[in-house]
Design goal:
Layout (H helix, E strand, L loop, with lengths): L1 E2 L4 E5 L15 E5 L9 E2 L1 H11 L6 E4 L8 H7 L5 E6 L14 E2 L3 H8 L3 E7 L3 H5 L3 H4 L2 E4 L1 H13 L3 H9 L7 E6 L19 H17 L3 E8 L10 H18 L1
Parallel strand pairs: 1-11, 2-3, 2-5, 5-11, 6-8, 6-10, 8-9, 10-11
Antiparallel strand pairs: 4-7
Helix pairs in contact: 2-3, 7-8, 8-9
């Protein structure tokens, strides 16, 4: 499998990563963004320009930790830096396809819709985690380019994954993600159950073990087919005033970082 190098970048908006240790002993780049106004949940044009300026010296390829789900719009900013055709795979408990009521603002709840509308190199999106009801509320123009693996379908697959070896590989093959163009992977830990992570948004029921099994099957599939994973980003921290919940996120981040480092 080609692509991702071990560039580990921490994007610090809220200060929450100072309560965690998963990156200790690693060679990391730390981007302090805490002084930029207009970034919490929504990101205005001035803030976007400042963020892009601070990211300029860092490569597109890498493992990016992006703070809480309030800043998941950073995946849209990251996608906009890609210079070649690519697909997007997202783990999230929400569709993130609700365009903001005010024009000109990028939002954590609408960044996928923004990417589909504005990122020329983005081809299609695979979205894992939201429930069927949420998918039903997605606007029709977007549905044609979004492949959806709902929480309900994942629940059906859960028993197979627990009992039958190779079920994760079957699940990945069923998604039919092309391997002939690079894949950008975005993970919001709110897709995990509350026992596994503590986030700023409502959470799903996936376990960390299940997520890692699906990621393993994905990477194995891409490796077999000589595919390329371009970038991985991870968000879903808790609010700084709930830092007593950080140990769960710290553990999840450590496992995810270890997984991606192992593959790349």
């Amino acid at each position: 499998m080609e692509g991702l190098k071990r560039n580990i970048v921490i994007m610090d908006f809220s200060g929450i990563y100072q309560e965690e240790q998963f990156y200790e002993g690693e060679q990391i780049s730390w981007i302090d963004l805490s002084d930029i106004s207009g970034t919490n949940c929504y990101c205005d044009g001035d803030a976007q320009a400042q963020i892009l300026e601070r990211m300029e010296k860092y490569p597109v390829s890498g493992i990016y930790f992006m703070d809480s789900g309030n800043y998941h719009y950073m995946s849209r900013i990251g996608a906009g830096r890609v210079k070649e055709p690519f697909n997007l795979l997202v783990f999230d408990n929400h569709t993130d396809m609700q365009l903001p009521a005010f024009g000109g603002l990028l939002s954590c709840g609408g960044w996928i819709a923004s990417a589909l509308e504005e990122v020329e190199k983005l081809q299609e999106v695979w979205l894992i985690g939201p429930d069927e009801e949420a998918y039903g509320q997605v606007e029709e123009p977007f549905k044609g380019r979004v492949h959806f693996l709902s929480r309900e379908r994942l629940a059906e697959a859960r028993s197979h994954m627990a009992k039958k070896k190779g079920s994760e590989e079957e699940l990945i093959r069923s998604l039919e993600i092309p391997v002939n163009i690079p894949l950008y992977v975005s993970i919001d830990k709110d897709v995990l159950c509350p026992e596994e992570a503590a986030t700023t948004w409502s959470q799903g029921d996936m376990t960390l073990e299940e997520m890692l099994k699906v990621l393993l099957a994905l990477c194995s599939h891409f490796e077999k087919e000589n595919g390329k994973i371009l970038q991985v980003d991870i968000c879903g921290e808790c609010d700084p005033d709930k830092s007593m919940e950080s140990p769960k996120n710290d553990h999840a981040n450590k496992e995810l970082l270890w997984f991606w480092k192992k593959w790349f």
